[in-house]
Write a structure and sequence with these properties.
There is one protein chain. This protein has 29 helices and 71 strands. Helix 10 (about 420-440) packs parallel to helix 13 and helix 26 (about 1140-1155) packs parallel to helix 29 (about 1200-1220). The protein starts with a strand and ends with a strand. It is an alpha+beta fold. The chain is globular, with a radius of gyration of 35 Å. GO terms for molecular function: metal ion binding; N-acylsphingosine amidohydrolase activity.
């Protein structure tokens, strides 16, 4: 039996296979994990211990030990003096802890050896590493650099271990990034980003297990990380904020001020993010069955010790001549002392330093004056420490190193004894790959396992080592065997690989020294005492009696020194929870991310132990379902294209008339789940990439469903919800106010939306099958902020004190799974506006919610184009009324200062106050916020420990409600009950200010409650609100009396009429004076189009009629609840603010509890069925210190709106749970026959002379690189001629080896843009601009870009066309 063992940090991979294998990929495999609380130890004692226990199975040649390179593990375990200096010597405790942990890990793996398979996969991981010495990398030959897209390797390599029964056993990955996310101010032991990645994956596969206690093992190993940093924001001068000097990594000559920053706001957050990104990519590759490659063949290994101090090599100089060189005795250069931007040095050295320094020359010469031969050998590196010639009191750095390769079939693991830089690693991979290929390997794969067996510092290329323009940096200064180090290693690894593949014997090489008996030891712990009046273990600072989820608890104990016992497999702390049985369950220990333990030395010689515990989402533990309820439902999911016209129609959301659609960035989709219980009751939920839902849309959908399916789906059991994207086409709502900025109703948009929703429901109905539904929830940070915090503060302090944040941070998720256990869908709710794309955008987009759906669906539907896979991921809106994705907050774009917190203005102007997202532009911010929602959803989806099976019955209840005169009661500040009522709709002044996500166009400010004489005149001209209406809406000053008015189309009619009249006479009737006949006369029949020029209007009659030309805002709204067991989905017809949503959840939860719900859960589905603007709390509505803001100004039914909704939803829930009948309520109007539109139609299309539709007028370059952006132009027709549902306006295709073309991207992909430009309005000429951002992982080859469209001739006939540009090469 041939065995190969690989240990990375605390993880072991053990494989064995018969010496002769019939290539079936069956191995004996075992995996293990054990506590070692520190980085990898020397291999010698580990092998000795293994041979004592297991005989000759494990030995020097087949055991690989590798460190993750965490910089937060205890030091003192290496036997060479230089690595002991800063830890004050050798630490026997650290050394023994490491060896014990590694041996225990191998023992565990040996104990569970079993037949199984090993698979390989790899994939590109972006935003997780950067080159920290790019100026050095540029010294490599240009012809070599051009072969690579990045200056660091972005490929994560993975091995998947699976039992013979198909059970997952382990994953081991290699990815080049330093474990330096925790910087040099950290004093707590940590696995850094590699440890986080392991923890995340192991938690996913070992639900409920504490860290290190589960059976599934996930190892995240180092690769060629020498010049690679996790601090992806790069280095900045902390004193000025400016970039550091790129050569010296200094700020004004000082390296200490030049610090590189990770992606988070602090080192812990950055550690988590980089670790999580590695974990997510690894899990993606682990589940990517289409690309996992079964490893077959035999296990082999080869090892040799090499004296690196005088290896002769040959290299080709710049003239092509072969030159001989040799390696040197170890020495450290000046640049070594500068440190890196991850951790600067302590003295006055700078990166890139090659000139000597008189003072440090003296210091260096005092320690050891290097010989002329040593100086010449290391040139051009000036020697700071001549470590190879000192030798006192024992060796300072290694001279003899391990070189080793392990083979699993065609996969070679090169265990290298140090830190290869990016290009050094690439050269090693290339050389070894050529050897594998020469021996007939079909899938030659090389993995570089860095920091293995021996540590000999850095290995740079010859070119990086040179000091051209003073660029020899830290890595070269730390290349201890001189400029020819890399070539010596390349020759050595080629030699041992050739030898093992050809069966040649490799001599063991010189024996390295065993220096353990010579070590200088750090001081011991002398004794521990407890302060007077206390004893060890006393809790001196207890926790609060009550804490909220998300709080941070810190308690103090009297303790002894932790060096007294490393407590392997045990813990210094435990957080435990009392179970109903009276037993205590341990839920967190010192190995958990959410706990910290540190000690502070006191003067008496005693220690105070501090324990910090974060109460996080892991406390959201669900009660198991009752045994008599198996949670089996019939479930179906579906997705369909609901994209509206791609151009020529305004976008819905910002109310900006200039924001007219001009193409597609992302297609918009409707996503549906249907769930039916055993009696046959079904609930339909649709989340569509639309601004909101509308009564007319739901009516049209239900009508179509009943025509097709009969009575299965109806008004009561169908919920339609919008994501609230502000980049979808407008004109689909039937109420006039929402049509004004779009120039009226758009039948094209309406039909596209209804068609897409119906198709989505049809698809879900078609795949109904038995399955289960699970619920989970978790906290998502850095994805939303309150955009009206001053308004939120108007809520009672005692209510606000119950919550940690001024927005909800919980993402709620439903997981749909087939009876066979296959994932079918996820649907989530999270409160954040889909306003990452701002009001300058003119391309259709699903915004951050659409991005989240795209990311998740791509992960579960590998290879499928957007909208074409079977797995569906819906990201729905919740109580997002005052919640923004622009988490950097609002700033004055003219000064950079914060906006006025009350008015959201800058010098009185709202237009200069803009809120910014986390990215450098709106597209980047959209992706980031979407990705964060997607990542949290994926985490919850896989969190089997906390997923709760939904059981029980499917129920639903629906009622239409007239919201214009609902009587409510509320308690005043004196405790007295006061009666109030809702009002007819009206919009306040603050509404016109817009928000910091999209400011208004006029001179209104947020928080405005004082009236304005000019706008009072304008308002009164449209409709003077009655005294009753003014009193009802107080303290909101009414800008648009939409519920009583007889208004012109945003004064468009007034503008036309003013051309002809110099005097306007206004006559008004009160509401009471209008007869039914008056009202009927204001309604026309049929859809009317008012397009060009002034229209004669009888102003006297025009302004007197209520609701002219039809209702401006809804009076009757949908209220609806869907129930799946104890989970209630409240479909609300508008945008509830944070606190409004909390009150609704609380009230509904109390109702569920009163009816015996074991796990009462309330989901708020915002913007559902009808859109009635905003719903604030009574307190937010009030104008204390001028804080009534946009949301309150847009609360159209007055200050008691929320209470009316709370009463209504409590009534509905009580009724459905008790079996009471709920009457349908008043029927809302169907206004589709009365719609007005000023939207000009498409008259005709023509192609410019000498061209035809589909002609490619701007072709792509002949050759492009991965990562490039390509833009091509086509002669086209108007995209309104056909929305092309389920199809595309563009296609990027790749030529296959078979001669067929594979479609790899369409207009629904994030990396493409379809932009339409009307180049000649009068002749109907237009151009399609198609952009493709070539993915960084695009397969090299031949590509082409195609365009599809329709053109309308002067006789209104529409004809399809297509075209394609010349082919091009992606390299």
């Amino acid at each position: 039996m041939e065995c190969l063992k690989f240990v990375v940090g605390t993880f072991l991979l053990l494989l064995s296979t018969p010496a002769r294998c019939d290539e079936d990929g069956l191995f004996w495999i075992g995996v293990g994990i054990a506590d070692c609380t520190g980085p990898a130890a020397g291999i010698g004692l580990v092998v000795r211990r293994l041979q004592e226990e297991f005989g000759g199975i494990y030995h020097q040649e087949n055991v690989i030990l590798s460190g993750t390179h965490t910089h937060s593990g205890p030091a003192g375990f290496l036997q060479y003096l230089l690595f002991q200096i800063t830890s004050l010597g050798f630490s026997e405790e650290t050394y023994n802890a490491n060896v014990d942990g590694i041996v225990n890990s191998i023992r565990a793996a040996h104990g569970n050896l079993q037949p199984g398979n090993v698979y390989y996969n790899e994939g590109e991981l972006l935003e997780a590493n950067v080159n920290r010495s790019p100026i050095s990398y540029l010294n490599n030959p240009p012809e070599e650099r051009v072969q690579y897209e990045y200056d660091v390797d972005k490929i994560l390599q993975l091995l998947k271990f699976q039992s013979l029964a198909g059970d997952p056993l382990a994953m081991f990955t290699w990815f080049p990034v330093h474990a330096t996310s925790m910087n040099n101010t950290n004093k707590l032991l940590s696995g850094d980003n590699k440890g986080v990645a392991s923890m995340i994956v192991e938690a996913a596969f070992n639900p409920g297990a504490l860290p290190g206690k589960g059976s599934f093992v996930a190892g995240f190993a180092a690769s060629n990380l020498g010049d690679v940093s996790p601090n992806i924001k790069g280095p900045r001068c902390i004193d000025t904020g400016e970039p550091c000097d790129p050569v010296t990594s200094a700020c004004g000559g000082t390296v200490g001020n030049c610090i590189a920053f990770g992606p988070g706001d602090n080192m812990e957050e950055s550690t988590w993010i980089i670790g999580e990104r590695q974990a997510n990519k690894a899990m993606e590759l682990f589940e990517d069955v289409a690309n996992l490659r079964l490893l077959t063949g035999t296990v082999k290994y080869v090892h040799q010790f090499v004296d690196m101090t005088n290896v002769v090599v040959e290299r080709r100089d710049i003239f092509g001549h072969m030159r001989q060189g040799r390696t040197c005795k170890p020495a450290m250069g000046y640049s070594f002392a500068a440190g890196t931007t991850d951790g600067p040095g302590m003295f006055d050295f700078t990166q890139g330093e090659t000139d000597t320094n008189p003072f440090w020359d003296f210091v260096a010469d005092f320690i050891q004056d290097p010989t002329p031969e040593q100086v010449a050998c290391h040139a051009p590196k000036p020697i700071l420490l001549d470590t190879g010639e000192i030798g006192w009191p024992y060796l300072w750095q290694p001279e003899i190193v391990d070189t080793q390769i392990g083979l699993i079939g065609d996969l070679a693991i090169a265990a290298v004894p140090g830190e290869f830089t990016t290009m050094s690693g690439r050269r090693l991979r290339n050389d070894m790959t050529q050897v594998l290929e020469s021996h007939g390997a079909e899938n030659p794969t090389v993995v570089i396992a860095g920091l293995s067996n021996t540590y000999s510092d850095y290995i740079t290329t010859y070119e990086e080592y040179q000091a051209s323009d003073v660029v020899q940096r830290y890595e070269a200064g730390s290349t201890i065997y001189g400029p020819h180090t890399l070539q010596a290693y390349l020759n050595q690894y080629v030699y041992i690989l050739e030898s093992v593949l050809s069966g040649a014997t490799v001599p063991p090489g010189p024996t390295p020294p065993d220096l353990l008996d010579k070590m200088l030891i750090i001081p011991p712990v002398l004794f521990d005492t407890a302060p007077g009046g206390t004893d060890f273990g006393d809790c001196t600072v207890p926790p609060p009696a009550t804490v909220n989820r998300g709080d941070v608890i810190r308690v103090d104990f009297i303790t002894g020194h932790p060096r007294n016992n490393v407590r392997h497999g045990d813990t210094f702390l435990a957080v435990e929870r009392l179970l109903d049985t009276g037993e205590w369950e341990r839920i967190a220990v010192d190995a958990n991310w959410e706990t910290n333990r540190f000690t502070v030395r006191t003067l008496q010689g005693a220690t105070m132990e501090c324990l910090k515990f974060v109460v996080g989402t892991f406390l959201l533990v669900s009660t198991p379902a009752r045994c008599d309820e198996d949670g089996l439902f019939r479930i179906g999911v579906g997705i369909a294209d609901c994209t509206g016209p791609a151009a020529g129609i305004g976008l819905m959301g910002y109310a900006n008339p200039s924001q007219t659609g001009a193409g597609i960035h992302m297609r918009q989709f409707a996503r549906t789940f249907i769930i039916c219980d055993d009696p046959g009751e079904c609930l339909v939920f649709v989340i569509a990439d639309m601004g909101m839902m509308d009564t007319a849309v739901k009516t049209g959908v239900v009508r179509r469903l009943q025509e097709e399916f009969g009575g299965i789906y109806h008004q009561e059991n169908v919920i339609l919800s919008g994501t609230h994207t502000h980049s979808g086409t407008a004109g689909f709502l039937q109420y006039l106010l929402f049509q004004i900025t779009n120039l009226g109703f758009s039948e094209e948009t309406y039909n596209a939306n209804v068609d897409g929703i119906v198709n989505s429901i049809r698809a879900a109905h078609g795949n109904l099958q038995p399955g289960h539904v699970y619920y989970n929830e978790g906290e998502l940070l850095e994805a939303n902020v309150n955009r009206s915090p001053i308004s939120y503060l108007n809520n009672p302090p005692e209510e606000r004190a119950q919550y940690e944040y001024d927005v909800d941070k919980i993402l709620q998720l439903l997981k749909f799974q087939s009876l066979a256990g296959d994932p079918l869908a996820m649907f989530t709710w999270f409160p954040v506006h889909a306003t990452s794309m701002n009001n300058t955008n003119k391309l259709l987009s699903g915004d951050n919610k659409g991005v989240a759906s795209m990311i998740v669906e791509a992960a579960f539907n590998p290879g499928a184009l957007p909208g074409k896979g079977s797995f569906v991921a819906g990201f729905a809106a919740s109580n997002l009324g005052d919640v923004s994705p622009n988490i950097k907050g609002p700033r004055c774009i003219d000064t950079g200062e914060p906006c006025d917190p009350v008015t959201s203005a800058c010098g009185g102007t709202v237009g200069n106050c803009i809120a910014f997202g986390p990215g450098d532009n709106m597209e980047e911010s959209t992706w980031i916020i979407g990705e964060r929602q997607a990542n949290k959803a994926l985490e919850l989806f896989e969190d089997t420990a906390n997923l709760r099976l939904l059981t029980g019955m499917v129920k639903y209840v629906h009622q239409f409600v007239d919201m214009t005169n609902v009587v409510v009661e509320r308690r005043d500040i004196f405790g007295h009950m006061r009666e109030g009522r809702t009002c007819k709709p009206a919009m306040g002044y603050s509404f016109a200010a817009g928000t910091t996500d999209g400011p208004g166009m006029f001179d209104f400010t947020q928080g405005e409650t004082d009236s304005n004489p000019f706008w009072n005149f304008v308002t009164d001209l449209i409709q003077d609100p009655t005294p009753e209406q003014v009193a009802c809406h107080a303290p909101k000053p009414i800008l648009l009396d939409t519920g009583e008015n007889g208004a012109l189309c945003h004064m468009a009619g007034f503008a036309f009429q003013a051309m002809e009249e110099t005097e306007v006479r206004v006559q008004k009737k009160s509401t009471e004076e209008l007869s039914d006949q008056d009202t009927r006369n204001t309604r026309g029949s049929g859809s009317r189009s008012l397009l060009l020029g002034p229209h004669p209007i009888n102003r006297t009659s025009f302004v007197t009629r209520i609701g002219w030309p039809y209702l401006w805002q809804p009076e009757i709204v949908d209220t609806q609840i869907g129930l799946i067991g104890d989970l209630a989905i409240a479909a609300v017809p508008g945008e509830f603010t944070t606190m409004s949503g909390r009150r609704l959840r609380n009230d509904m939860t109390q109702v569920l509890e009163s009816h015996g719900a074991e796990n009462p859960t309330v989901v708020i589905a915002g913007l559902s069925n009808t859109y009635s603007d905003y719903i604030t709390t009574y307190e937010e509505y009030q104008a204390s210190d001028l804080v009534q803001r946009y949301e309150a100004g847009s609360t159209i039914y007055g200050p008691h709106t929320l209470q009316a909704y709370l009463n209504q939803y409590v009534y509905l829930l009580e009724s459905v749970l008790s079996g009471a009948t709920v009457p349908p309520g008043p029927t809302p109007p169907d206004l589709l026959d009365e719609m007005l539109t000023f939207i000009p139609p498409v008259l005709f299309d023509t192609a410019p002379g000498g061209t035809d539709f589909g002609d490619c007028t701007v072709p792509p370059p002949a050759t492009v690189n991965r990562g490039d952006v390509i833009r091509v132009d086509f002669i086209t027709g108007h995209p309104r001629n056909n929305v092309r549902h389920g199809d595309t306006f563009l296609a990027v295709e790749r030529l296959l080896d078979t001669g067929e073309w594979e479609r790899i991207a369409v207009d629904a992909n994030w990396e493409t843009k379809y932009e339409w430009e009307n180049t000649n309005f009068f002749l109907g000429e237009s151009v399609a601009h198609i952009t493709w951002h070539v993915p960084a992982d695009a397969t090299p080859g031949t590509y082409k870009i195609r365009h599809f469209g329709e053109q309308k001739d002067i006789f209104k006939a529409i004809t399809s066309f297509e075209g394609e540009c010349p082919q091009f090469q992606v390299v």
